[in-house]
Amino acid sequence: MERTLIILKPSTLQRGLVGQVIDRFQRKGLQIAGIKMMQLDEKILTEHYAHLVDRPFFPTLLKSMMATPVITMCLEGKDAVEVVRAMTGATNSRKAAPGTIRGDFGMSGQENIIHASDSVENAAIEVKRFFSDNEIFDYSLLVRDATYGPDELS
Ligand code: IDP
Ligand code: MG
């Protein structure tokens, strides 16, 4: 099954939305392969947001992502990267569709609740960036056969 990397951003902890966001992923049928709390620093964020280092908002983004610890998650499921990106919604929360996490919980472009990997290739890199091998768990939920049809379990 495919895996993807989620970060619950500092503003999500500040606003008390952690439980509601995680609840959405579980209700959807995504399996938690890894979850932990960590304090991000400039080094890991500069790597993670390398595509944004030259943007004028980068210093503000860094500060925002280091304001408190974050919660990182590795979620697993069929087409997990695409499914989670669809659940996340557009980058700017004000433009994100109602029903998406950003659309339902946010009003900001920067403080947009979660990070979610944007491709299968980046997901693999990002899971490795934030988790060591022994923090990712291989197990099978009992509801697996009720969550998927047999042809979707390969
Ligand atoms: P994504 O999180 O939807 O994949 P990216 O373009 O990868 O969007 O940007 C990473 C993060 O940088 C966003 O989630 C948001 O927090 C922040 N960001 C992106 N564009 C802006 C902007 O124009 N102003 C302020 N922050 C931004
Ligand atoms: Mg991105």
Radius of gyration: 15 Å
Q: End-to-end distance, in Å?
A: 8 Å
Assign an overall shape.
Answer: globular
Structural class: alpha+beta
Low-confidence stretches: none
- What compounds are bound to the protein? inosine-5'-diphosphate, magnesium ion
What does this structure look like?
It is a single chain. This protein is an alpha+beta fold. Helices cover 39% and strands 17% of the residues. It has helices at 10-14, 18-28, 42-48, 58-65, 80-88, 101-105, 120-130, 144-147, and strands spanning 2-8, 31-38, 70-77, 114-116. It has a four-stranded antiparallel β-sheet. It is globular and about 50 Å long. The chain starts with a strand and ends in a 7-residue tail after the last helix. The structure holds inosine-5'-diphosphate and magnesium ion. Inosine-5'-diphosphate (IDP) binds at residues 49, 52, 57, 61, 91, 109-110, 112, 115, 118.
Quick structural overview:
The protein has helices at 10-14, 18-28, 42-48, 58-65, 80-88, 101-105, 120-130, 144-147; strands at residues 2-8, 31-38, 70-77, 114-116. The chain has 154 residues and is of the alpha+beta class.
List the helices and strands and how they pair.
Layout: E1 2-8, H1 10-14, H2 18-28, E2 31-38, H3 42-48, H4 58-65, E3 70-77, H5 80-88, H6 101-105, E4 114-116, H7 120-130, H8 144-147
Antiparallel strand pairs: 1-3, 1-4, 2-3
Bound molecules: inosine-5'-diphosphate (IDP) and magnesium ion.
The site of inosine-5'-diphosphate has 10 residues, from loops.
